[in-house]
Specification:
HIT family, subunit A, about 300 residues, 2 domains, about 30% strand, Phosphorylase Kinase, domain 1, alpha+beta, binds 7N-methyl-8-hydroguanosine-5'-diphosphate, four-stranded antiparallel β-sheet, single chain
Length: about 300
C-alpha cells in the first residue's frame, strides 16, 4: 500500500501527544486489525521568509475574530503547496511496535544519574536486546542502498566511513529546520559509552567533514550548526545529529539531559581517554522507557536519591 492509502485506512484510537508549542500531534491507531500505527503531524514553519514575503498573496482567506482601537486579530488560511510550501509534515510508523508506542506516549520523566556500574549491570544487556530488528533501518541505509537517493555523502570505508543524509525529522525544504543525520559505518559503537581515546582523531576529522559537506550542499555555515549525540539514544548504533541552531527541535531532543555536543565529547575523551567509561551520566528517562522498566536499574537510581 502507498503512504496515502495507508493514511486513508488509519483509524485513530488515542492521542498519544499534543503540543501547542511545536504545533504537533502524535496519534495511535490501527491500519489493519492486528497492526498498530503511529502518525505524527507537525505544522510546518514558514519557508525561510524574508523582506520579499508577499503577505497579500500568501494569505488566502481571513476571518476576523475581533478588533479594538488599533488592534485586529483573525484566523487565516495560508496558501500552501506540496513541493515548496507544505502546510504540515506527516510521519507514519507502521507496523508500530510496543517500544514505539511507549516512546511516543505522554509520560512522567525522571532525572537519572547513571553510574558505570548501572550501565554495566543493566544498560549493556538492555542495549544488546535493542539491536537486531530495531536498527534494521540503519543497516538498510548503510549496506542496502535504502534512501541512497537522498544521501549528502557516503564514504564506504568500513572503519572510518559514514553516511550523511536528511533525518526523517526534516521536511528537506526549510533550511531553518535543517536536520541531518550522520550514521557511521562501523558497528562496534553503541553510544558515547563506547568512545575512548582511540576515537579522538576520527571524531575530529568526522566533525570537520560534516561541517564542510553541509556547507557545500546547503550553504549553512559551520557556526550555524549544532552537532551532537543523544544519551541514551533511541537506536544503539553510533550516529550524530546535525541541526540548524535556529531549530529548537521537537520534544527534548536538543535539551541538556539528552543531547551532548560532539565538541564536548571530543574534548572529554582528549582529557581522559576513559571518560565515558568512568563517568556518571545524568539524563532524562521517561517511565515508559525500557531502562525504567528494569527493576535493578530503577532501584539503583532510587538508592542514589
Ligand atoms: P536517536 O537519538 O537514536 O533517537 O536518533 P531519537 O532522536 O528519535 O530519540 C535517531 C535519529 O535518526 C533521529 O533523529 C530520527 O529522526 C532519525 N531516524 C530514525 N529512523 C527510523 C530514520 C529513518 O528510517 N531514516 C532517516 N533518514 N532517519 C531516521
Amino acid at each position: 500500500m502507498s503512504l496515502s492509502e495507508l493514511i486513508k485506512s488509519f483509524q485513530c484510537q488515542k492521542i498519544l501527544k499534543s503540543n501547542p508549542q511545536t504545533k504537533s500531534v502524535v496519534l495511535l491507531g490501527q491500519i489493519s486489525k492486528s497492526n498498530d500505527a503511529i502518525i505524527t503531524i507537525e505544522k510546518s514553519h514558514f519557508v525561510t521568509p524574508d523582506e520579499s514575503y508577499d503577505v497579500a498573496s500568501s494569505v488566502e482567506q481571513t476571518l476576523e475574530i475581533n478588533h479594538n482601537d488599533i488592534y485586529y486579530w483573525s484566523n487565516s488560511i495560508l496558501k500552501q503547496d506540496l513541493e515548496e510550501n507544505p502546510g504540515a509534515k506527516l510521519n507514519l510508523i507502521y507496523p508500530a511496535t510496543e517500544t514505539h508506542i511507549r516512546k511516543y506516549g505522554e509520560q512522567p520523566h525522571h532525572y537519572v544519574v547513571e553510574t558505570p556500574q548501572m550501565y554495566k549491570d543493566y544498560a549493556v544487556p538492555y542495549i544488546e536486546s535493542m539491536k537486531g530488528d530495531r536498527i534494521k533501518w540503519v543497516y538498510n541505509i548503510l549496506f542496502e542502498g535504502k534512501e541512497s537517493e537522498t544521501f549528502v555523502h557516503h564514504d564506504k570505508d568500513l572503519q572510518t566511513g559514514f553516511v550523511l543524509l536528511p533525518d526523517m525529522k526534516w521536511d528537506t525544504i526549510n533550511l531553518d529546520t535543517l536536520y541531518l543525520c550522520c550514521i557511521v559505518n562501523r558497528t562496534d559503537i553503541s553510544s558515547v559509552r563506547d568512545l575512548n581515546e582511540s576515537h579522538v582523531q576520527w571524531l575530529i576529522d568526522l566533525q570537520q567533514r560534516l561541517r564542510k559537506l553541509t556547507f557545500e550542499k546547503y550553504s549553512v555555515e559551520a557556526d550555524q550548526l549544532r552537532i551532537f549525540a543523544h544519551y541514551h539514544p533511541s537506536y544503539y548504533h553510533f550516529h550524530l545529529h546535525i541541526v540548524n541552531i535556529k531549530h529548537p527541535g521537537l520534544g527534548n531532543g536538543i535539551a541538556v539531559g539528552k543531547a551532548i555536543l560532539l565538541d564536548d565529547i571530543i574534548e572529554n575523551i582528549q582529557l581522559a581517554g576513559d571518560y565515558y567509561q568512568k563517568k556518571n551520566i545524568g539524563f532524562l528517562l521517561g517511565e515508559n522507557h525500557g531502562l525504567w522498566q528494569i527493576e535493578g536499574y530503577r532501584k539503583s537510581h532510587e538508592e542514589r536519591q
